[in-house]
Design brief:
With 298 residues, the chain is an alpha/beta fold. Helices cover 40% and strands 17% of the residues. Helix 1 runs parallel beside helix 9, helix 6 packs across helix 7 and helix 6 packs across helix 9. It binds NADP nicotinamide-adenine-dinucleotide phosphate (NAP). NADP nicotinamide-adenine-dinucleotide phosphate (NAP) binds next to helix 9.
Length: 298
């Protein structure tokens, strides 16, 4: 297909998809409650008073309750010591009412985020950041996987169908929370995967070869129209707050206005963003099911 100026990329409506996913989760929770007599529970731990983190945690709490799950919120003082935080995680690891645990990042500088994440029981690690879960994903046996790339994967399959085999996926960004797990999920789906990062010499040329282009760099408007192959599916993970004209606007990593020749693209906001919390609750349900299946099998 040529670059037809009359073609318009379809919008991938992550907001709508997330709303429907949350409805499915809610009805699954009701059924599981009847079957097992237990309500899935998610514990979220916030240390300190970072305003953006506080907004995320409040939103997670609201949506957990709306899905019919139990929400356990722990807001700890910024001076909380590593030992105090680890002691709380020990209690949550042992608590049968808690199926998922999330520690909101970033943590205050005196705390070691790696030690904290590794202290979470991998069976309750609904962020999918524990090395055991990262290893399971890397070896093609995923258990609990990071929420943002999981959401991207759901949107890609909704757009392209379940079978992504043989497609060339290019991912911009190689962070542990988005780019790297995204590359592994797409490899597990039998895509040919290229990862572009800040040291890549020919990013535009590599991106232009992509059937699937996932961008998670945190650089506003990095990906221009001529980086996108006509007919490609573009997932923009970037969330960049731009101040100007006395107001602040959120924009993505892709120059959205130049992407009309893509087959489909996620808008920012309203694309990947709303999927992340929905996937967190989906992971909590996965952790709950795994616990009860294992308990039933024992
Ligand atoms: P990060 O940890 O800062 O990683 C950014 C990655 O992009 C790095 O691998 C970096 O390369 C690469 N990069 C930076 N500049 C680049 C350039 N000019 N060309 C090519 N690659 C470049 O960020 P992150 O946590 O993965 O997040 C990425 C973006 O997604 C952010 O805007 C963040 O706000 C957003 N995000 C959204 C959600 C959501 O929708 N719910 C969730 C998480 C993140 P190097 O490794 O070489 O430094």
């Amino acid at each position: 297909m040529g670059m037809d100026r009359f073609t318009r990329a379809a919008n991938i409506d992550g907001k709508q998809f997330a709303t429907e996913l949350l409805e499915r989760i809610k009805s699954d929770v009701e059924v599981l409650k009847i079957e097992t007599g237990v309500v899935p529970g998610l514990a979220v731990v916030l240390v300190g008073d970072d305003p953006a983190s506080a907004v995320y945690v409040a939103s997670k709490h609201r949506q957990t309750i709306a899905a019919g799950m139990k929400s356990f919120e722990y807001r700890l003082a910024a001076e909380t010591t590593q030992d105090e935080l680890l002691a709380l995680l020990d209690r949550l690891n042992a608590d049968p009412e808690v199926h998922g645990i999330l520690v909101q990042l970033p943590l205050p500088a005196h705390l070691d985020p790696n030690a904290v994440v590794q202290a979470i029981n991998p069976d309750k690690d609904v962020d999918g950041f524990h090395v055991l879960n990262a290893g399971c994903l890397a070896t093609g046996n995923p258990a609990l996987v990071p929420c943002t790339p999981l959401g991207c994967m759901m949107l890609l399959k909704d757009t392209l169908g379940e079978n992504l085999s043989g497609l060339h996926a290019v991912i911009v960004g190689k962070s542990n929370i988005v780019g790297k797990p995204m590359a592994q999920m797409l490899m597990n789906a039998h895509c040919t995967v290229t990862v572009v990062h800040s040291q890549t010499r020919n990013p535009a040329e590599l991106c232009r070869a992509a059937d699937i282009l996932v961008v998670a760099a945190g650089r506003p408007g990095l990906v221009r129209g001529d980086w996108i192959k006509p007919g490609a599916v573009v997932v923009d993970v970037g969330i960049n707050r731009i101040e100007g004209d006395g107001k602040s606007t959120i924009i993505g990593d892709v120059a959205y206005g130049e992407a009309g020749h893509a087959r489909a693209i996620t808008p920012v906001p309203g694309g990947v963003g709303p999927m992340t919390i929905a996937c967190l609750l989906s992971n909590t349900l996965t952790a709950f099911r795994r616990r009860h299946t294992l308990a039933a099998a024992a």
